[in-house]
């Protein structure tokens, strides 16, 4: 006996999307890419064949956007290219594979230790409740466990990591990974380390704004200019008043550069001048030395006196508005 199901018109048919799609893929995909995926998913139900040029007409999208969307979904693994076309893969199977594959790299001891850590479990539960309304997908649990292992963050830092990204509307795996990597490179392990890092970043921001204002720069600083400032603050340990002394030396320059300022500050640092008083005393002595030389030259009244040659560094201080 053969049983057949009555055909259903398109009016009553449905295209289902797993909930995991909304928790794992929706936020990171561009709007046009979502448009392409949904239409491909719809067509795959009917085993339809469609050309990329047809998609541009159906979806009112440029061909390059269609190409980019296809490449994006290929990279995520949602679709797979074959000689005859594409296969739309099961999202549940993809996530199940992600969930169990990373655990192979963890030893039974690691897994047992993680399971026994009530503290971490509370942190993960807090992250789930606070940032995912209690419906955090299984993949996040594996990611968090691996981040704990890779970066050695304590629980408070892990929760702060999610809070930081959430506050910037960027609660995505890629963004969180980048931030976690940056924190790790700055030797952040504990919450105290993180607070000190934030204080340093806040200080750096204040210095950037102050220096830009003093130099009349109304644009964002370049990466290289910021590197100079970081060098003065972190490597030299100079305060803003000390840097301002160097900035004043640019008043006679038509187009003062960070390189010029850096040469001044580097010279002071190499001379062991650490405080504002040390630098002001040095500049005063340097000014007095120049003045004494001028007086000696005037007193000697040498008509054909050859000017004493100074090294290149001395020219840094050839500023009429000496501090």
- What is the terminal-to-terminal distance? 104 Å
Characterize the overall form: elongated
With helices defined by DSSP (H or I, 4 residues minimum), what is the helix count? 15
The level of helicity is 55-70%
The helix/strand series, from N terminus to C terminus, equals: HHHHEEHHHHHHHHHHH
Helix-strand category = mainly alpha
Tally of domains: 3
**Mean pLDDT score:** 79
| Strand residue content | under 5%
Poorly predicted sequence stretches spanning 5 or more consecutive residues: 1-5
Tally of strands: 2
Computed over alpha carbons, the radius of gyration is: 32 Å
| Oligomerization category of the chains in this entry | single chain
The biggest beta sheet reads: 2 strands, antiparallel
Sheet with most strands: strand arrangement: 1-2
Which tags fit this structure?
2 strands, Arc Repressor Mutant, subunit A, 15 helices, single chain, mainly alpha, 323 residues, two-stranded antiparallel sheet
Overview of this protein structure:
- The protein is mainly alpha-helical.
- It folds into three domains: 19-95, Orthogonal Bundle (Arc Repressor Mutant, subunit A); 101-189, no CATH class; 201-317, no CATH class.
- 62% of the residues lie in helices and 2% in strands.
- It contains 15 helices and two strands.
- The protein has helices at 19-24, 31-44, 52-59, 63-76, 91-100, 108-116, 118-132, 138-151, 155-167, 173-185, 191-214, 223-235, 240-248, 258-270, 276-300, and strands at 79-82, 85-88.
- The protein has a two-stranded antiparallel sheet with strand order 1-2.
- Strand 1 and strand 2 (85-88) form a beta hairpin.
- Helix 2 packs across helix 4, helix 7 runs parallel beside helix 9 and helix 11 (191-214) runs parallel beside helix 13.
- The longest helix has 25 residues, at 276-300.
- The radius of gyration is 32 Å and the shape is elongated.
- Mean pLDDT is 79; it is low at 1-5.
């Amino acid at each position: 006996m053969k049983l057949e199901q009555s055909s259903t018109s398109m009016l009553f048919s449905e295209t289902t999307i797993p909930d995991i799609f909304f928790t794992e893929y929706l936020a990171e995909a561009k709007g046009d890419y979502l448009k392409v995926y949904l239409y491909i998913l719809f067509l795959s139900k009917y085993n339809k064949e469609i050309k990329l040029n047809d998609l541009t007409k159906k979806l009112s999208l440029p061909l390059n956007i269609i190409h980019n969307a296809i490449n994006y979904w290929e990279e995520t693994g949602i679709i797979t290219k074959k000689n005859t076309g594409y296969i739309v893969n099961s999202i549940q199977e993809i996530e199940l594979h992600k969930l169990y594959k990373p655990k192979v790299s963890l030893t039974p001891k690691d897994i047992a230790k993680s399971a026994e850590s009530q503290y971490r479990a509370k942190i993960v539960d807090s992250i789930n409740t606070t940032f995912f309304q209690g419906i955090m997908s299984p993949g996040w649990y594996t990611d968090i466990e691996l981040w704990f292992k890779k970066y050695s963050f304590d629980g408070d830092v892990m929760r702060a990591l999610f809070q930081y990204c959430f506050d910037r509307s960027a609660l995505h795996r890629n963004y969180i990974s980048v931030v976690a990597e940056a924190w790790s490179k700055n030797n952040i392990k504990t919450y105290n380390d993180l607070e000190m890092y934030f204080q340093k970043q806040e200080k750096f921001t204040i210095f950037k704004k102050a220096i830009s204002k003093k130099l009349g720069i109304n644009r964002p600083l370049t990466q290289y200019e910021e590197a100079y400032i970081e060098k003065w603050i972190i490597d030299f340990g100079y305060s803003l008043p000390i840097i301002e002394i160097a900035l004043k030396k640019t008043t006679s320059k038509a187009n003062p550069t960070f390189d010029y300022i850096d040469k001044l500050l580097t010279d002071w640092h190499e001379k062991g001048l650490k405080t504002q008083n040390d630098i002001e005393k040095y500049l005063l002595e340097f000014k007095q030395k120049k003045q004494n030389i001028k007086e000696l030259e005037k007193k000697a009244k040498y008509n054909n006196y050859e000017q004493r040659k100074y090294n290149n560094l001395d020219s840094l201080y050839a500023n009429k508005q000496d501090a």
